């Protein structure tokens, strides 16, 4: 609005005010309308920033800007001097698809039932990928090229999504939101033929973490991974130079981050700092310096979660926030107060079943393991394609590891607590130490509150989630009011606690009318092993439970109590299930049984061969189990 127009309006208001026939209230309303219109026009005329994302895969903050002296990352280090660097940025999950769900929706995948790796469960109609709102506000949206959002795609949110997608295809003067994804640092880049290349980083100087043994293969894979980081940095530099050459750098806010931590074993797929803490650098040009949370070169300790990215981008673009978002913006005019905790989740990873949650504040990381009887080092076909992974397992079998390195191959504790300032590698578990009781209690309560507030769907076995999804979105199912989430969580807590004092109550709940409560009660008996002997009769009845997954859990518990004859027919039946998650659960019980599973060796082998062409999750577990049975 021009100064001349503003002066004209003010003269009109003055004239109206001098007329006795015009009431003061009317004049006041006109004045309010005038200033509202002035604000609205100014808002429309304010140029919205372009926003560009540079996204790498599977890497922790292996950058010189984060103090890593072994890293060779000059382009991203320079970006950090020009922007702000976040010290406490965290992925929502330690694997790509579930964490990318949080990025694209601003919601926790655990709340929508999409926490399990490569699940494509449906979402409610109102949940849109956030670029849709940018597009509606006039932005050109492009994605190059990875999606992997762990739910059904919404391709309409992009003006272009391809290997050639770029902001350059927008209309003249149109603001853009553009993503460039690099696979250069992906886990696959340290596997197979990639590992045989000449190394640029010296393996003997590689910063091998204390939870890894320093085998030649481990050293070489770490060196190779830093080579891949250097290559990715060069690619990021090309994107930045291209932006500069286009004349758009002064109108563009640039983000660099990784989709989760990793990529070597115990990083990706695990709820530690090594799997969840990510690099995050944001550069604000001078034109938008007023939107920056700090001066160029600043290092910020504010906690940021991936679930906050969508609302933050909408806030920077001055787009109203949809009500279903669970994240809080940390940038822009709608920025919220800093969060106290970052929450993360773990479900099925590739073909292996597991369940865990993590809470992180500025000093401590808390991990709750709900299936503690499953070792961290469950055999994942894809992960074992790295020579470093094989060498670690071989060193364990040879008895060559210390306590920190052996932890990966043993059943998990129910709770883990780490002082990340004193113990950045998370190897000294403080849970159970008297001097940390109050911290443990605080973090445990924060986790419990989050699970209830977000209506966590992960405590429903995936075998059931898959069936619910055929009828309605899991997100909606959890909000019908019919599912007893609080009772289920209470049962899961007892089941995973490893405390024999809960046997009586768990035995009682084996007969609960809610199948998920029966399932978790059976899992509690699995965890307790022979300490759950008094529940044997009740468990035997569950072998006839209406739900297959409850039968499988009961069978596993009974095997721990010395039963084999009753268990094998149940497992044989469920190997033929039409539900692949029931099949995987049955295979994992047989894997636990070792030589006692030999009577079903042919069924396992047939199942492996049947699914060989698709390399599905069932086939991967079956092939691994078949090899184990042959060796025995």
TrEMBL record:
<dbReference type="InterPro" id="IPR011989">
    <property type="entry name" value="ARM-like"/>
</dbReference>
<protein>
    <submittedName>
        <fullName>Arylsulfatase A-like enzyme</fullName>
    </submittedName>
</protein>
<keyword id="KW-0378">Hydrolase</keyword>
<dbReference type="Pfam" id="PF13646">
    <property type="entry name" value="HEAT_2"/>
</dbReference>
<dbReference type="GO" id="GO:0016787">
    <property type="term" value="F:hydrolase activity"/>
</dbReference>
<dbReference type="InterPro" id="IPR016024">
    <property type="entry name" value="ARM-type_fold"/>
</dbReference>
<comment type="similarity">
    <text>Belongs to the sulfatase family.</text>
</comment>
<feature type="domain" description="Sulfatase N-terminal">
    <location>
        <begin position="49"/>
        <end position="319"/>
    </location>
</feature>
<dbReference type="InterPro" id="IPR052701">
    <property type="entry name" value="GAG_Ulvan_Degrading_Sulfatases"/>
</dbReference>
<dbReference type="InterPro" id="IPR024607">
    <property type="entry name" value="Sulfatase_CS"/>
</dbReference>
<dbReference type="InterPro" id="IPR017850">
    <property type="entry name" value="Alkaline_phosphatase_core_sf"/>
</dbReference>
<dbReference type="Pfam" id="PF00884">
    <property type="entry name" value="Sulfatase"/>
</dbReference>
<dbReference type="InterPro" id="IPR000917">
    <property type="entry name" value="Sulfatase_N"/>
</dbReference>
């Amino acid at each position: 609005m021009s100064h001349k127009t503003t002066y004209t309006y003010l003269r009109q208001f003055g004239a109206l005010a001098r007329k006795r026939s015009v009431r003061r209230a009317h004049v006041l309303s006109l004045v309010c309308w005038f200033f509202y219109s002035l604000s609205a026009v100014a808002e429309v005329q304010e140029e919205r920033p372009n926003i560009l994302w540079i996204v790498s895969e599977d890497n922790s903050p292996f950058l010189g800007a984060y103090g890593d002296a072994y890293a060779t990352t000059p382009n991203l280090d320079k970006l950090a001097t020009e922007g702000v660097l976040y010290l406490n940025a965290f992925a929502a999950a330690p694997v790509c698809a579930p964490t990318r769900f949080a990025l694209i929706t601003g919601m926790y995948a655990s709340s929508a039932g999409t926490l399990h790796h490569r699940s494509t469960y449906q979402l409610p109609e109102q949940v849109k990928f956030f670029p849709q709102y940018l597009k509606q506000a006039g932005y050109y949206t492009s994605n190059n090229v990875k999606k992997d959002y762990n739910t059904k795609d919404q391709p309409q949110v992009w003006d272009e999504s391809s290997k050639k997608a770029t902001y350059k295809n927008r209309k003249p003067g149109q603001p853009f939101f553009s993503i460039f994804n690099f696979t250069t640092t992906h886990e696959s880049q340290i596997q197979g033929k990639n590992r045989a290349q000449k190394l640029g980083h010296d393996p003997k100087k590689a910063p091998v973490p204390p939870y890894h043994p320093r085998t030649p293969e481990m050293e070489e894979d770490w060196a190779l991974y830093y080579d891949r980081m250097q290559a990715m940095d060069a690619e990021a530099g090309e994107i930045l130079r291209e932006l500069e050459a286009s004349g758009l750098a002064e109108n563009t806010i640039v983000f660099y981050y990784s989709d989760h931590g990793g990529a070597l074993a115990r990083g990706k797929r695990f709820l530690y700092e090594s799997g969840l803490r990510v690099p995050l650098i944001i550069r604000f040009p001078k034109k938008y310096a007023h939107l920056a949370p700090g001066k160029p070169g600043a290092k910020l300790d504010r906690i940021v979660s991936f679930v906050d990215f969508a609302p933050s981008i909408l806030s920077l673009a001055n787009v109203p926030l949809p009500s279903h978002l669970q994240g809080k913006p940390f940038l822009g005019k709608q920025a919220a107060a800093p969060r106290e905790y970052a929450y993360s989740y773990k479900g099925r990873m590739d073909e292996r079943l597991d369940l865990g949650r993590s809470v992180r504040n500025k000093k401590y990381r808390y991990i709750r393991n709900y299936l503690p009887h499953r070792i961290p080092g469950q055999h994942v076909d894809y992960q074992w394609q790295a020579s470093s992974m094989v060498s670690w397992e071989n060193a364990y079998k040879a008895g060559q590891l210390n306590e920190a390195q052996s932890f990966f191959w043993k059943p998990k504790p129910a709770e883990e607590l780490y002082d990340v300032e004193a113990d950045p590698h998370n190897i000294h578990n403080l849970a159970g130490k008297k001097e940390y009781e109050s911290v443990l209690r605080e973090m445990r309560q924060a986790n419990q509150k989050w699970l209830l507030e977000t209506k966590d769907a992960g405590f429903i076995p995936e075998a059931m989630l898959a069936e619910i999804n055929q009828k309605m979105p899991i997100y909606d199912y959890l909000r019908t009011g019919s599912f007893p989430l609080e009772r289920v969580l209470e049962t899961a807590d007892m089941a995973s606690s490893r405390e024999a004092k809960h046997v009586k109550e768990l035995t009682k709940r084996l007969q609960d009318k809610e199948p998920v409560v029966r399932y978790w009660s059976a899992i509690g008996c699995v965890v307790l092993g022979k300490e759950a002997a008094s529940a044997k009769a009740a468990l035997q009845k569950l072998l006839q439970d209406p739900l297959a997954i409850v039968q499988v859990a009961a069978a596993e518990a009974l095997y721990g109590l010395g039963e084999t004859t009753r268990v094998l027919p149940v497992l044989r039946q469920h190997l033929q299930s039409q539900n692949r998650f029931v099949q995987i659960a049955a295979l994992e019980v047989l894997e636990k049984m070792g030589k006692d599973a030999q009577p079903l060796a042919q069924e396992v082998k047939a199942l492996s061969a049947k699914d060989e062409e698709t390399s599905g999750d069932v086939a991967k577990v079956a092939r691994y189990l078949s090899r184990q049975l042959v060796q025995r």
